[in-house]
Every structure is written in C-alpha cells, then in structure tokens.
Amino acid sequence: MKLHIRSGLTWFILLIALIAAVWVVISITRHNDGQPAMQRLSIGSHAPDFEGVNTNGEKIRLADYRGKVVVINFWASWCGPCVNEMPLINGVFQDHSDDVVTLFVNAGESKGTIMEFLTAQQFEFPVLIDAAGKITGAYFVTGLPVTYILNKDGAISQAIIGEIENKQQLDHAIKNAGED
C-alpha cells in the first residue's frame, strides 16, 4: 500500500514539474500576441519609455535622457552573474558620467533589499526600483542580467543577454551607440 502511494505521489510531482517547465518555456518564448519576445525589442527599434523612482527618491523618466547614450542594466541581488558584472558597470557609470546615462533597474526586489545589497557591496549609484515588474515587463526581460544600450535617439543599439564579459565589450557597445 505504501509503495502504491509513493508511486502515485512521485507521478503527481513529475506531472506538476512538467507542467511548470512547459509554462516557463511558453512564457519565455511568447508574449500575449503570440510573437516571440525577442522580436519585440529588436536592434534599431525604439526603446519603450518608462517612469520609475530610484533609491534616492528621484522620479526617473527615460525620455528625459534623449540626446545621450543610455545603458539600462536589469539585475537582482540574488543573481550571481548580475553581482559579478556590477563593478564593471559601476566603473563605466563613473568613467562616462558626463556623456552616458546608466540606469540600474532592479527586477522585483524591495527598496530595503536593494539598499542592504548596495551597502554591503559598497556601491553608491542610484537604482530604479521595479518591484512590480512594469519596466522589466516592458522590456520583455525573462532572465538576468540583461543590458540594453540605447543610442541618442532612444533606439536600441545593442542588447547584451547574460553577464557582460569585460569592460571592452561594454565600452565598444557604448561607442557604437554614440555613432548610431
């Protein structure tokens, strides 16, 4: 009798895991209108505008940065690759502060969690709080980290999916966006 119950429970758990896996795959590859998500934000397309509040309490609106190259980095404190690339992006933020706007968008965490992380890592840059997922949703972010580089007209010049490999990769993307 115990063997029969365990066997049934095992099959039930496997069925739930299979349903969850199928749901994740569909969610990642499709948006509401049935188009593949990555086709929605292609290189050269206009980046979706957004508003948000950063950790300093300032209201940030993407459209306010037209005329400048913009780096938008989506991250979370629990994401290992995000944490690995943050010193590199912070360096670019400091090196290019006069001519490049860097927007760090935290995906889904509270202001308290973000502030604890920034303090522990000794980062002083402001972070956009996207606890409700409105900004990450507008950019179809389904995994972290993701970095978009926008040209001065607000069009997507490059998308880096995953961890940025080195400073040269990001510097090159910024340079290309400035020339678009």
Automatic annotation (TrEMBL):
Keyword list, A-Z: Disulfide bond
SUPFAM superfamilies: Thioredoxin-like (SSF52833)
CDD domains: TlpA_like_family (cd02966)
Pfam family of the protein (one): AhpC-TSA
Cited InterPro entries: AhpC/TSA, Thioredoxin-like_sf, Thioredoxin_CS, Thioredoxin_domain, Thioredoxin_ResA/DsbE_sf
Positions of the Thioredoxin domain: 41-179
Keyword Disulfide bond: yes
Protein name: Thioredoxin domain-containing protein
Source species, domain of life: Bacteria
